[in-house]
Amino acid sequence: MMQNIKFTFLMAAYNAEKYITEAIESAINQTYGNFELLILDDKSTDNTVNVVESFNDNRIRLVKLPHYGSGGKVRAEGYKYITGDYVQILDADDYISPDLLENYVGALEKDSLDIIVPQPYSVTHGEIKRITKTNEYLGKTIDGKTAFDLSIFWNLHAWMCVRKELLISVGYDYEDYRIKTDELNNRKLFFYANKVHVSQGSYYYRTNESSVTRLRANFIKTVESLVDEKMLLEFATENAAECTQKKCRDLLIQNLFVYQRKYDSYRSELGKDDSQFVLRVLEGTYYVKELRKGKYGINNLFGIVFWLSGNDYEKYSRVVSRLNKAYGCIKRNKNKA
C-alpha cells in the first residue's frame, strides 16, 4: 500500500474532555500512518487542552483559538493549518474505525477522487445504529451531482473526507447568528465534486447531550435548520436540476411544518432572548416582517408552506395532511414509550 498520500484529521474542540481521548485514540491507532491530527481548541474552559497535550505523538498538532462558539467556524479557521492532501472531519466526541484511512487509500489507488464518504453510525448511550442505508452505493464511485441529490435528505451523509483543493476552493459560508453551520457547506462540496466514493470505513457519531448544537432547545435547532434549508433551496434553484430543486422545496416544507409544531410545544418555555433570536433568524432568512404577524405570523407559518407549494392549494393540502398524520403517529408512539 502506498504511503505518499497524507491525510489531515480536522477536529474542532470545545469543552470536550469527556470524549476527546477516545476520538484522538481512534485517529492515532489507524492502520495507515501518514496523517496529522489537527485539533483546534475553541478556548475550552475545562480540561480539554491538558488532555490533548498529554498525548506524546508528533502527528498531533494543537492550535489554540479565540472562542467562536461554532464548530463550523472553528474548522474554517483551521483551513490555513492543513498540510494533508485530503481532509477528514472528526468531531471531538466522535470516533472512527481503525481501518478508515486504509479503506480510503485502497480506493484512491484505483481512481482520482474528490470526496470519500465513510459508513455513518450513531452511538446513543452505548447503542450503535446505522444512520443511512447506502448499500446500493457501497464500494462505488458516483458523480458529485448525484451525491448532492442524495444528500438533500441525508441518504448520503456528510462526515466526509475531502480533497484539500476542493475544500479550500468551495470555502465556507458563515453567518454570525448561526450555531449549526455545516450542512449547506457540506452539500456544496458534494455538488462541486467530480467523483465521490462510498467507502467501507466507519464513522461513529455520538449523540452527546453536551455538544454545542444540543445546548439550545430543540426548537432553536429547528430554526437554525430553516436558515440552511432556505439557502439550500436558493442554491439548488440557481444550480441544480428541477428534480433536485423539488427535493429542496419538500425539505423546507417539511421543516417549516416541524417548526410550527415545535413552536406550539415550546413557546411557553421560550425566554425573551430565545424569542428575539427566533425572530431575528427568521426575518433575516425570509426577508419578511410579516413573520411577526398576519399571513405569515409566528403562529401560522403555513402561509410560507403554501407559497413553497407553488400556490397550489391541492398540493399544499396533501403535504400538510401527510405531515399531520406523520406527526400524530410520532406523538402517539412517544406517549406509548
Q: Mind explaining what this structure looks like?
A:
By secondary structure, the chain is of the alpha/beta class. It has two domains: 7-213, Spore Coat Polysaccharide Biosynthesis Protein SpsA, Chain A (Alpha-Beta Complex); 216-336, no CATH class. Helices cover 44% and strands 17% of the residues. The protein has twelve helices and ten strands. Strands 1, 2, 3, 4, 5, 6, 7, 8, 9 and 10 form a ten-stranded mixed β-sheet that branches. Strand 2, helix 2 (48-53) and strand 3 (60-64) form a beta-alpha-beta unit. Helix 8 packs antiparallel against helix 9 (242-266) and helix 9 (242-266) packs antiparallel against helix 11 (302-308). The longest helix is centred in the C-terminal third of the chain and has 25 residues, at 242-266. The protein starts with 6 loop residues before the first strand and ends with a helix. The model is unreliable at 210-217 and 287-300 (pLDDT under 50).
